[in-house]
Amino acid sequence: MTFVDTAKVGAAATLAKFSGDNLTGQVGTTLSTPHVVLVTDANGNPVPNVTIGWSPATGGGSVNPTSSVTGADGKASTTRTLGPIPGTQTTTASASGLTTVTFSITAQVGGATQMVFADSSVRHDTVGQTVTGPLAVKVMDALNNPVQGVTISWTVLNGGGSVNPTSSITGSNGIATTTWTLGTAISPTDSTQFAQASGVASPLTFTAYTVPGAV
Fold first, then answer.
1. What is the pLDDT of residues 31-70, one digit of tens each?
2. What is the C-alpha separation between 53 and 36, in angstroms, rounded?
3. Going from the N-terminus, what domains does the chain have, and what CATH number goes with each?
């Protein structure tokens, strides 16, 4: 007579990150790499049929699915869509009776898609003088996060005068600036001068209403 002893997997004892930690992605997008956990018993054997709850713990966004069940290999997974705020975002995985684990993602700013005035677009000053305060624009991604390192070109459209520098690069706050020295030309019917910023989306035009200088 032959006796057969069939070994059985023990109860779930450990929930651990298997893969998909320390990922990097663009804000507002779905990560291409899933978060994967592994559930094992006290002897390190994979445990199937354990329900895992997933949550976008910090940073906003979502996970899909919000719960999944471990397979025969003890693994379960989800995919994270990042929230709108750059920086560190986290996803948690939990199961009844087991210690929750946390996945970390570095969310990066998206590409530059919009440019707005960062200060007044209308000025009043004397011909031939440097306009009070710099001209400033702010460059942002589609989720309104400031975008660094974008080159903005500055141009005087009429009236003579000059801008300095003629191009500048956005800082960490997404802002680029230049100074505008007005031209000396003025007529009885036209005392308006224009300067323009371009480089992202539609150009922005600054307006200066001028008055004559001292005689």
1. 999 999 999 999 999 999 999 999 999 999 999 999 999 9
2. 12
3. 14-108 (2.60.40.10), 114-211 (2.60.40.10)
